[in-house]
Design a protein that fits this description.
This protein is mostly helical. The protein is built from two helices and no strands. It has helices spanning about 30-110, 115-120. It is found in: Cytoplasm, Cytoskeleton, Flagellum axoneme.
């Protein structure tokens, strides 16, 4: 029962299977294969992590560039709104000045003809 022969622990169900209570461990060749496979898995996982980190860095760079572009566009939009507001204010001031001049003209020229007593005396002078 306690034998050092690893062939005793092999199962009849398959050559890669072992009987649990008879298994004594791996030999040096199996350990080397195991460690080599482990190193390959570690290298593959590291490559996968590096690729994911690289992808994340690219996404971060893209996000920052988009944020910069949006901020630049916001500044341009604000500048355009200020220019439009300034232009509108100037136009409104011009219209207000024209309206005041028009009102002044009407007061001084058009509405200046106030009726006198002579105007009122021409009414109600005849029977008809």
């Amino acid at each position: 029962m306690l034998t050092e022969n690893p062939d005793v622990a092999k199962s009849a169900l398959g050559k890669n299977r072992a009987i649990g209570f008879m298994y004594k461990g791996m030999n040096q060749e199996e350990l080397k294969k195991f460690y080599a496979a482990q190193k390959e898995q570690m290298a593959a996982n590291k490559a996968k992590r590096d690729a994911a980190d690289k992808m994340e860095a690219e996404w971060q760079a893209l996000s920052k560039s988009i944020q910069r572009e949006v901020a630049r566009q916001d500044i341009l939009d604000q500048r355009q709104r200020r220019e439009m507001a300034k232009q509108l204010m100037e136009e409104n001031q011009l219209l207000a000045m024209q309206q005041k001049e028009k009102e002044k003209y009407f007061k001084e020229v058009v509405y200046n003809n106030t009726p006198t007593d002579e105007y009122y005396s021409q009414f109600n002078t005849t029977t008809r």
